[in-house]
């Protein structure tokens, strides 16, 4: 194990855990910090808000398995397997397992935070707004009244009537947070992260089509989750497009950060090994130029990767 891990593993792990815990607390209590979502108005003749209410094709439980649990389990199993195979990777230590997991979890929480900011700031109404909200204006009238129906007035002063629509409190609350699609963002983040990680590791069976097929399966699953949100009238197509781009973009940025961190660790580990070798070689051999200087070893590592 490298000298870096022996010198300061506890400090690094504790800092990572504390920061991750703070982000989770922020996400779980985002409504308390931000306040209620923006209350947007509507036109009574807006056909994009007149779709019926449908149950989710991809439930919240299934979404968490596709976007969080299965990707996390897959990454842990894959990295644990590679950490014991020196014939596959030359840096066979447990550190890459920790590095991959911590960056995945950080990216997951960060992606969730960006999604919540978008939902609360924009406050876009869902396609099934009228079916769930059954809005009533302050004077007691509604869009079904002749004086309101078909007008071009933009209504902002209204209250939902769950007693008419039989909607639950959660349905009423969620009807104002259509943009961006949270299902799309979560599915694309978790599954695209796995696809990019398989590409970076060139696993399994490097040189064959097996790895690309697995990557395609990950992207196809994420794509189906995104399409289901339009199919179920939960989101407008632009909500799904934004959520998919957010999730895929977050995965790309985080996987690059994890790769950069791993490269730096490998180079520092090579430098530490070079310094240890330099300390035990004969002084005459070092003066004779047989040992590469440690600084040159670090530069060579960075260039070669």
Question: How does this structure look, described?
Answer:
One of its GO terms (biological process) is signal transduction. The protein is mainly α and 305 residues long. The chain has one domain. 65% of the residues lie in helices and 3% in strands. The chain contains 13 helices and four strands. It has a two-stranded antiparallel ribbon. A two-stranded antiparallel sheet has the order 2-4. Helix 10 (210-231) packs antiparallel against helix 11 and helix 11 (237-280) packs antiparallel against helix 13. It is elongated and about 85 Å long. The two termini are 21 Å apart. Mean pLDDT is 85; it is low at 1-7 and 294-300.
Strand-helix topology:
Elements: H1 3-7, H2 9-28, H3 30-34, E1 42-43, H4 60-82, H5 95-122, H6 129-133, E2 136-137, E3 154-155, E4 158-159, H7 162-165, H8 169-174, H9 182-201, H10 210-231, H11 237-280, H12 283-287, H13 294-304
Antiparallel strand pairs: 1-3, 2-4
Helix pairs in contact: 2-5, 4-5, 4-9, 5-9, 5-11, 9-10, 9-11, 10-11, 11-13
């Amino acid at each position: 194990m490298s000298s870096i891990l022996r010198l300061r593993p506890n400090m690094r792990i504790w800092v990572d855990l504390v920061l991750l815990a703070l982000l989770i607390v922020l996400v779980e209590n985002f409504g308390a910090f931000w306040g209620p979502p923006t209350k947007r108005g509507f036109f009574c003749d807006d056909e994009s808000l007149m779709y019926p209410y449908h149950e989710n094709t991809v439930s919240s439980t299934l979404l968490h398995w596709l976007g969080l649990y299965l990707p996390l389990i897959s990454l842990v199993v894959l990295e644990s397997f590679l950490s014991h195979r020196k014939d596959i990777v030359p840096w066979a230590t447990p550190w890459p397992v920790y590095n991959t997991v911590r960056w995945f979890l950080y990216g997951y929480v960060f992606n969730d935070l960006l999604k919540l900011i978008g939902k609360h700031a924009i406050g876009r109404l869902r396609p099934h707004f009228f079916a769930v909200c059954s809005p009533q204006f302050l004077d007691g009238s509604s869009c079904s009244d002749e004086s309101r129906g078909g007008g071009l007035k933009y209504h902002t002063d209204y209250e939902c009537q769950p007693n008419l629509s039989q909607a639950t409190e959660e349905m009423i609350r969620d009807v104002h947070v259509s943009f961006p699609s949270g299902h799309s963002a979560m599915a694309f983040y978790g599954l695209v992260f796995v696809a990019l990680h398989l590409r970076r590791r060139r696993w399994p069976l490097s040189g064959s089509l097996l790895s690309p097929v697995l990557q395609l399966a990950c992207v196809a699953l994420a794509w189906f989750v995104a399409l289901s949100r339009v199919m179920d009238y939960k989101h407008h197509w632009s909500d799904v497009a934004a959520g998919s781009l957010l999730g895929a973009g977050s995965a790309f940025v985080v996987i690059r950060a994890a790769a950069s961190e791993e490269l730096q660790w490998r180079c520092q580990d090579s430098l530490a090994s070079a310094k240890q070798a330099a300390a035990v070689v004969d002084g005459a051999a070092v003066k004779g130029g047989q040992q590469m200087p440690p600084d040159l070893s670090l530069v060579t590592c960075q260039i070669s990767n």
